[in-house]
Amino acid sequence: MAGKRNKYSVLLPTYNERDNLPVMVWLLHKTFTENNLDWEVIIVDDGSPDGTQDIAQQLIKVYNQPNREPNVVLKPRAGKLGLGTAYVHGLSFAKGNFVIIMDADFSHHPNALPRFIAEQEKNDHDIVLGTRYRGSGAGVAGWDLKRKLVSRGANLLSDTLLRPGVSDVTGSYRLYKKDVLRKVIDSTTSKGYTFQMEMMVRAKAMGYSVGEVPITFVDRLYGESKLGGDEIVEYAKGVLWLWFSV
Q1: What is the pTM of this model?
Q2: Which secondary-structure segment (H or E) carries 38?
């Protein structure tokens, strides 16, 4: 008997992404349908004042079909409650056995997803991450020198002190087995910029296997970057805390 078909649930946290969301969902639809994959996208919007939820409701009408599991789901929250809790919220509605986390601002292009899935299937990885720092095609577009140095420095700091064994601990383009993501999130206490780093460090400490796929990270097309000085300080404190606790 053939095994159950895999389903991929994309968790898409949003805040003021009305300009990006329609094209992102279209690209996800295109990628999954062209590769004959079962999928859904769960939009977790934190009370965007720009009408992101209105756009999401329109997308639901476009992409969902009667008498079939919905491809686009909106699960809003009352306000900005943090990235980690957005994943927890979205995960509680995910019907797939694999979960993909990514940004809604085109920093992460859906055309990389078939490579994520192929890498997972080839080696039965628990997690596959998109890396900006290893492999042919890896890189960053649209960042100034300061931003590149901050990102490189953040990864170097965590690699030196924590030795997680992966090349990009701060990246947020990842594929998880759903049960693995649930366990990793349950063990993670950080918020903000430190959250992705702690999730990967915890996952490696728990013995989960991690594959890597080179990606080109593109700075957001619309809106403003949320990385500032406070986040950099928070990250450094988080690395030191994990060094003592993991």
Answers
A1: 0.81
A2: strand 38-45
Query: Bridge-partner residues for 76, per DSSP?
Result: none
Contact 16, 54 (CB under 8 A): no
C-beta of residue 195 within 8 angstroms of C-beta of residue 84: yes
- Alpha-carbon distance 44 to 36, whole Å? 25
> How far apart, in whole angstroms, are the C-alpha atoms of residue 210 and residue 125?
6
Q: Which residues of the chain have pLDDT under 70?
A: 1-3, 138-165, 191-193, 219-246
CB 199 within 8 Å of CB 121: no
What is the per-residue pLDDT across 147-204, written as a single tens digit (0 to 9) for each?
555 555 555 554 544 445 678 887 889 999 999 999 999 998 876 667 888 888 889 8
Residue 218 near residue 101 (C-beta atoms within 8 A)? no
